[in-house]
Specification:
Helix content is 28%, strand content 33%. The longest helix is centred in the first third of the chain and has 21 residues. 30% of the residues are buried.
Amino acid sequence: MDERELQQLKNRLLELADKAYTQNRYTYTPFLGLAEQQAYYAVEREVSYAGVRMEGGAAPCERKIIRFGDPGYEEAFPIVRIEILPKTPKFAEHLTHRDILGAVMNLGIERDVTGDIFLPDEKSALLFCHENIADYIVENLDRVKHTNVGCKRAAGELALQNAEPERISVTVSSPRADAVISKVYNLSREESRELFNNSRIFINGMQAENASCQLKEEDAVTVRGFGKFVYYGQTGVSKKGKDRVEVGVFGKQR
């Protein structure tokens, strides 16, 4: 997102906050990715008077809708979860996030009306989307790659095998963000720093620019193109005097 687009989004957020406050009703943004959410954090104090809440449809979701307003009643976010299943599982291909997203985009749907995509297994998917587009997707999404699929609205709590992170221990010279990221994703320190330079690192949803920042317990780190992990903190010291730390690594589910 360039500076012009960032400023346009900031202005839109200010407008939505003002409308929610003056008209005493809820207003909503489209789904915003982590990079777009930085526009909100830039004006967070300016819009706080209106009342703000962010939701993606489930706790693991990173793409979120921002709701402004505090009219004295509760209103559900316009988010629907769609289950995408192969019609003939035996002959279904292994599907990826890119396959699902590509099939949805081929319906002429904009990215900002769709949220996160989860892959419970290699042949099915869960898609979060805006209420207004849900029925259209259910009725028209019938093929992903060469696999015939069926769609339906899903209900109940989100249950995913990879919703809980895999706990691993790594040894680092310090809990610097670039050092931990390097170890978690088997990168050189230079490659890790380059990710910061390319605006691909987010800590607790906010873009991180300082590669030397110290991670704190429960910090959630997203590395675009690689995945996400939670930093749990130091568990000991190695024989060479380095920090032994524990992190929880999520599978590539988005």
